[in-house]
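General statements about sequence and structure are easier to judge against a single worked case. When preparing material for the folding task, we compiled for one chain both its residues and its backbone structure tokens. The amino acid sequence and the backbone structure tokens for this protein are reproduced below:
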Amino acid sequence: MKKITTYLLIGLTSVATLVSCGGSSEQKSSNNGETLSGELSLSGAFALYPLAVEWANSFQELYPDVKVDVSAGGAGKGMTDALAGVVDFGMVSREVYPQEIEKGAVGFAVAKDAVVPTVNANNPLIKEILAHGLSQETAIKIWITGEAKTWGDILGTDDKTPLHVYTRSDACGAAETWAKWLGKKQEDLGGTAVFGDPGVAAAVQKDIYGIGLNNIGYAYDNDSHKPNAGILVLPIDSNNDGQISADENFYDLKDQLTKAIAEGKYPSPPARDLYLVTKGNPENPVVKAFLKYVLTEGQKKNEPTGYIAIPQEKIEKSLSILK
């Protein structure tokens, strides 16, 4: 099997995008239309990157003469690349803005996940922190107003353990979605700005006083489905009563969280749809074939990879555009 070409630099460095033939997606087919050859390119949201890799590998098993390049660099880059025609698909982890639609952006909802608050597992107050949870009101004090300076401010105590806040430096759907939950925009978020999902996760892993925000794909290990080493997901206190009740406690495993998201138990935002974005309605046969695969057989990859499948009515709406 021809392997997908992927580029993801972990840490505080940038993520490189490799695009073959400028995303031109040259296509050749046999007379009966059963074979495809050419190239596809995707760039953008870290949130969608792991699932896009799974889709691309499977698609290449079906069509060995198609080469697929996938790179992560944030939702903003994905949208910019798609509108510029640099890639065939921009991976976008937020809603498509009206001004982007005016420029030709067409968004196809392909999966659902969520942004979660992450904390260092070795925080000296970790038991109290997990039992107390994070309310929307407190999150505003952490990321928007900056009123929360210590973990005591979060717990409602006099504890002076310092609080170190992390956010994203790159234009991304995770930060935009988190800010939307708080009634703001990404540029309103405070804290130390770090590039990329892997960068924020690494920063919190290294800082026992740290709190950050991550897509669930970077908060949990994809094999064990447990939180990644050194970090834990901080439960959301949805009813703002200062404690995490049994029906709010579904964060030990990724599977529990995705089930809660699907059932609407986790607030939306920060739960959100993930999109593949094209410039204009797709016409290239290779592009259309890949998108049709993602919206049909590819949806079977969502749950095993830690995502939620898109409702059938949204899928039908997208497929109607491709006819």
The longest helix spans residues 49-62.
